[in-house]
Sequence to fold (333 residues):
Amino acid sequence: MITANFYNIKSTNGLYFYGLDYLRESLSVVRLVLVRPFLKKHIQEALPGVKVVVCSTSRFAKEIVIANLRGDLLFTPTSHPLPGINRQWIVLHDAYPFEIGPRAGLKYMLFRISLCLSRCRVGYINRSDAKLFLEKMGVTEERMVFAPNRFPDAIHHAPAVIAPLEGITTVGLLGTDSAKKNYDLLFSAVRRAGLSADLVFHVYGHETPYFRKICAQFRELNIQLVKSDYELLEVFLSRVDVLASAAEQEGFGRPIAAALLAGVPVELLDRPVFREFFSGGARFHSEVDMLVKSLPRSGTEQLPLSYKAPADVVAAYIAANNEIRRVGSIGLR
Fold:
């Protein structure tokens, strides 16, 4: 059986939705999900009928020991391997936490030690960042598996083909979790371009210290938070004229994929991960200033190219799920 470890997920973010997608493919062999208190309701609504265990630190340690003694597969959709547990599947989404920030060095050291102290399976969600990072750490090919995100179902949406009312473009931005979103660089470029009065920014995410800091830094801009826990992604996409991202180290970008499949124009920095998943749909820009100048909608833009999820990524998602379900089914008890 599978014990799912969501204990290190702190919001309903991309890690959360990644884990949900994988669990839905293996519900018949999911024994329980370990969570922090705030996540209980979300998991119960998303996975009705699945046992959810709310954990303190001590309860979490107890449940892990029990799961290991039972021989469960510990499925952890984050980069938190537990030492000494071999029947364990963890996932690296991006290298950002281990390379940027005041605690990056400590996180890197703990991650590397934990990997050395178990023979866990290590999933990576992209080849151009996460896999390269694991290779540099010395993780062998035999331990790694390409376990990408599930591409979302296509959302019906009629893209804007006329100039927005009053000449103001509504720009959709994604995520509020950390500085890797590069909103300071994006909004500074808006200032330089003299477009502060021409763009409205709808940011899909949560109320966080990072978001509050950015809003305080750019008070002259119209920046509005759209709380992702209360508004469906398809509703958010229906209210924007264009989607944009200036992020440098995204692991995937589930909302970007949804926007492209819905026919929403998408403007991105030209970065390897974005190229890996969104070539043939998004428009790429080598510099943030060029990206910003592409945002105003004049009514003359061409509609996005017809976009389809890369076939190899879809196949890898299916294969990864099959492996998790197979391993979780071994020695059921």
